[in-house]
């Protein structure tokens, strides 16, 4: 799909030198996605990791939700499950405790990691006009972190950090642990509510009072319902996220590449495979119900910035070097 020049003229054939001049001019302007950073930080400030301020709203929300889940799970779910002295009660409690530990550890690792650190010699490089240095050929520049990320996948608002080669495994562990963590809470709360409805309130309250002498059935039902309503959407969304990344792993794509390919539509079939990976010959995207979360707030073929924090998609810098001396935009 062609685009008009700023003055409204028809598509023109531009020299690579002209493209380079425009990119250098854009380099000196603060990126539109860095509204949280003072303008004087641009070119100097680069986010070290997900704990670097400013923290994102979704990151703070995840911390609050996790804290509430742990508190409610520890004071309600675990004691009631263990009071029944049945093997499944011990099994669910043990799995929930393990998933909690794994979730904390993997989330901390993925957040604390600096995915832009130079950890190995660069065999194949290109020059980043934003970082003003050579980076690996598969690196992308994240404007929210203001640095290049090797094997860039996406910028995760929940971690307030980019996900790339250095922390992708930790990210998948965190998503898997979150899925197990929330699924077990949904299973417990759903079971308790179904017992309250099916077995009768008196029998259920009697079981609760064996754990809490002053148990109030309305309070315990309300807390169980809260666990269910909070964690059921999280379970479904996390499952969808894992399924999406399983699809990407099977096809040999990153999230960023998937977005670029889907936005380019038919042109994706003529795109070069990513560095060091094999991609299927014909691109076929997932239905919208499976990838809606990566396109929130962004319409297809828009000329703005990608939601993942990477530079705009209308110019493929890497492909310029493989074309002739003149390119058509």
TrEMBL record:
It catalyses: L-cysteinyl-[protein] + hexadecanoyl-CoA = S-hexadecanoyl-L-cysteinyl-[protein] + CoA. Residues 302-329 are annotated as: Disordered. This is Palmitoyltransferase. One of its GO terms (molecular function) is protein-cysteine S-palmitoyltransferase activity. Residues 124-260 form the Palmitoyltransferase DHHC domain. It comes from Perkinsus marinus (strain ATCC 50983 / TXsc). Belongs to the DHHC palmitoyltransferase family. The DHHC domain is required for palmitoyltransferase activity. Its main location: membrane. The keyword Translocase does not apply. GO terms for cellular component: endoplasmic reticulum; Golgi apparatus; membrane. Keywords: Acyltransferase, Membrane, Transferase, Transmembrane, Transmembrane helix. The keyword Endoplasmic reticulum does not apply. It is a multi-pass membrane protein. It is found in: Membrane. Its EC number is 2.3.1.225. The chain crosses the membrane at residues 60-81, 87-110, 168-191, 220-244. GO terms for biological process: protein targeting to membrane. Pfam families: DHHC.
